[in-house]
Amino acid sequence: MTDPRFDLVIDRAISRVNTAVSDAVDKVATQLGPLTLSATSNLQRQVLMSAERDLQLKSHQLRSAFGKRFRQQVDKIAGSARAQHSGHQVLATETDWASLSLVDNAEVERGVTADRLAQALTHECDAELESLAAYMTALMNDPNPERNPLRPQEVARALLEAIADLNSADDVVQVLAQHLGRVLGPELATCYGQIVADLRSQGVTPRGLTVNRTRSTTSVHGGMSPTNPGSLSGELPQPTQPGTFPDSMGGRVTSGYQNTAPLNAETHMRAAQALSEMFGVSMPMPMADGATPMGLRGAAPRQPGALPAVSPDFQNLLRQIAAQSPPPGWTADFPGGLPAEGGAAAYGMAPGEAGAGFAGPLMAVNLIRAHREELVKASGGAALDQMVIDIVAALFDQVLSDPKVSPQMARQIARLQMPVLRVALADMSFFNSRKHPVRRFVNRIATLSASFDDYDSGPGQACLERITALVNDIVDGDFDRMDTYESKLAELETFIDGENAREAAENAAVAAMLNGKEADLRVHQRYMQILKRELADVEMPDFLRDFLSQIWSQVQVMAAARDGAQSPLAARMKAAGHNLALSVQPKGHPQLRKEFLLKLPQLMKDLNEGLALIQWAEEAKQAFFAQLLPAHAECLKTAPQHDLTQRLLEHQLTKVEQIAIPSREEAANDPLPEALNDIKAPPVLTVVPALSPTEIKEAGFLPEAAVVAEGPLDIDLNLPGDNDPSLTEIDINLDAPAPPSAGLQLVHHIQKGAAYQMMMQGQWKKVRLTWVSDGRTFFIFNHGHTHKQTISLTARTLAKMCDSGRFKAFEQAELIERATVRARRQLAALSGGGSGHSAPARARSAA
User: Least crowded by CB within 10 Å, which of 497, 545, 572, 807?
Assistant: First the structure.
């Protein structure tokens, strides 16, 4: 490392990272208070209080410790890089047996937590990190992304070590790490953007990344190490996390590819081996005088985001095939969907192969299978390329016969066969990476396909026309560039956002009403927190303190919102809370007992009226009165308090009574409690009482009580949409976990515009999410096309439906995943049949 600008840039970058962490600490310190007050359990509340106290007392220590730890890590990485570039031998610490020592459990746990935190931070600042990595590669003259001293992994490690230095309890450390990680992501994204600007101002020119290979053992078989095919190193694969494909593009798979370096033969062979195992086909080994695989051609550096160059003949053939229209009168004459004229033989398949393993009839011609021999010849005939062509053909057999993709959308996906084949031949990470832009584009089209039932008019027609235009741009344009797919995917998302906004406008009145109710929930939460704080020192039973702060505060907010803060009803409800607190004070004197008995009927009347106003559950009401009546009986036997004590109590209750209910504007930015903290426990903030019967009808509101009343859901094997039981557990090894299609965590992953299955009144209905409130408290779904039905519900109700199996994603898995599972099954069936024309057999014969 000889760049003289390094020290100046790194010092400024460290300062910016320290500022980002300091800002995150300040934000968490202000947020822990409201979170503590809204905690749903005593244990959770105690941990949050301890975390808030430690952060307030030790924030300066935390900042100082982080700065010190982070500086040490940066200096260590920079020193190692300098030693390497100076030509000195750098011994790997893992080979120095004398230096090995036992690691305590706390350090191991801290390392695991740091890895998880680093993954979350990387997700929040992925685009900014990619730009920073390109600049740091140039600055350090080192293409290894792990040598970037500013990456989130180093920030997370330093932060966890700094938190550990506070000597707080383990549960407090976990809470601080969780909330600091949640807030630090956006701060780090901004920080990385500023560092990139600093690097650019210093004249640093970004450079693409290359694949990092660690030490590996060499095998006699083609120079590949005898490890898991998906691993780039000679290390043993971890049993809990199988290795993934190497990035055959030569760099980290992200939302945008910026690699310009030539590919590595060993890396490409590893990716091919992993691909063959994913689909269960034989791996053809290259021959000494055989053609070079397409992914390894072109030693010259590529333009950022471009694929390796191919011969003009192959490129022209792809464009000619992509421009073809379906033959006139084309129909599927068997489940595989080949045309009647020429039958299966015209597509290079034996008649017995045609219907093997298809999910349904083909909705468009499989052009790759139809033109296989031409494609193999024009590609150069490399054995690996033939295997990829056969695998992509099998994939499109399944993509174009998937029952959850409409025929209209399937025909648009079919037009992408040549662009997808072009990408798959050069970049095998297409099969492995959920972030791959081509994979994301195809999957997004399939997801949108399930959202519409009619493509002849309305939103379905508009969506089909937009997707057709985007596919036209790809097929007619330069589909050798990844940024083409990125831009078209961005255009599609922009269009969908616009359509969602237009459809949400149809329910504007309902959305406005629910937004107002969400604002009232924030008001209630803030008022409840104030009452909790003021009543903490007032002498009264705990059950009554909780009732006044949590339940009766809602009565007061409801009365003020309905009739006004100065209305007689609002004044009477406030006075009832005051009188209720006094009713349990000692009244051993006859005069005090007489006054109590005279006021008790009106007090009970006001209590019942207020609880009816918020529709408090009858069971909860009975439980409360079962505690209140013994408290009243006990106070009649207890000697009265001293006059001074009684006046002090009156003064405290009068002060509480005079507290003004906050306005919506004052509580607008308050965070609402997480709906999924404990869906089994009664909610602290209830929503249904805030809705009148008329509002419930207009909004199509589904109350939580309706879900609970239906009882447990039996296993239902007749879900709509032709569900495939084989897709329940998908064992494909991809670079990121699949978003859940069912279960409680689905609440965090639902997307506007996507289709879902909802159990209502004993029947499964396909619904489409059209609107989500700012605080994610309310959701609006639409059902039907001609006669739309609006369905609104709370996040808590939705969570209960997900948890009980009454709400699921319409797609069990993304389209390419579904196609991979079925294609693997199809290829296995064809190979087992022993047909000489099967795809695996062709791949083996080509080798």
Answer: 497
| C-alpha dist (Å) from residue 344 to 273, 334, 354, 833 | 30, 9, 6, 16
| Coil, strand or helix at 406 | coil
Quick one: which H or E segment has residue 175? helix 170-201
Number of neighbours of residue 467 by Cβ within 10 angstroms:
22
pLDDT along the chain (847 residues), means of 10: 69 87 86 77 80 83 87 82 54 40 54 74 80 81 76 87 84 84 86 86 65 35 34 33 41 39 59 76 62 59 60 85 67 42 42 51 88 89 86 91 90 93 86 87 90 84 93 87 87 88 84 87 86 86 90 88 86 90 84 85 91 83 91 85 79 85 84 64 57 81 74 51 53 74 84 87 87 87 82 88 89 87 80 45 36
Q: Which amino acid type is present at position 623? A: A
For the entire predicted model, the pTM comes to 0.60
Q: How, if at all, do strands 789-794 and 807-809 pair?
A: unpaired
Q: Report the SS3 class of residue 792.
A: strand
- Give the dihedral sign, CA 517/518/519/525: positive
463 and 764 Cβ atoms separated by less than 8 Å: no
- Beta bridge partners of residue 85, listed in sequence order: none
In whole angstroms, give the CA distance from residue 36 to residue 40: 9
What amino acid occupies position 424?
A
Which of 119, 104, 100, 200 shows the shortest CA–CA distance to 157?
119
Distance CA 390, CA 349 (A): 12
Which residues have C-beta within 8 Å of that of residue 168, sequence separation ≥ 6? 50, 51, 54, 58, 176
Give the Cα separation of 195 and 183 in Å (integer).
19
Alpha-carbon span 244 to 228, nearest angstrom: 9
- Whether 733 and 243 have beta carbons less than 8 Å apart is answered as yes
d(CA 175, CA 564): 40
- Residue pair 40/677 in contact (Cβ under 8 Å)? The answer is yes
Token digits for 607? Answer: 């209590």
Phi and psi angles of residue 768, each rounded to the nearest 5 degrees, phi first: -130, 125
- Alpha helices by DSSP H, 477-589: 482-506, 508-535, 542-546, 553-563, 568-583
The CA distance from 789 to 153, in Å, is: 48
CB atoms within 10 A of CB 734: 22
Classify the C-alpha dihedral 593-594-595-600 as positive or negative.
positive
Give per-residue pLDDT as tens, 361-417. Answer: 888 889 998 899 999 988 888 888 888 899 999 999 999 998 889 999 999 999 999
Q: Which residues contact 757 (CB under 8 A, 6 or more apart)?
A: 719, 720, 721, 764, 765, 766, 767, 807, 808, 809, 810
How many Å apart are CA 749 and CA 741, to the nearest integer? 9
Q: With contact defined as beta carbons under 8 Å apart, do 118 and 181 qualify?
A: no
Backbone angles phi, psi at 391, to 5 degrees: -70, -45
Sign (positive or negative) of CA dihedral 23, 24, 25, 26: positive
Region label for 634, one of left (φ > 0), alpha (ψ between -120 and 50) or beta (otherwise): alpha
Instruction: Name residue 790's beta-bridge partners.
Output: 782
Q: Please provide the DSSP assignment of 416-480 as one string.
A: THHHHHHHHHH-GGGGT-TT-HHHHHHHHHHHHHTT-S-SSSHHHHHHHHHHHHHHHHHHHS-TT
CA-to-CA distance for 542 and 584, rounded, in angstroms?
12
The C-alpha atoms of residue 246 and residue 261 are separated, in whole angstroms, by 15
Q: Which two tokens stand for residue 263?
A: 């590919």
Q: What is the DSSP string of 714-752?
A: PP-S--TTT--GGGSS-----SSPPPPSSSGGGGGT--T
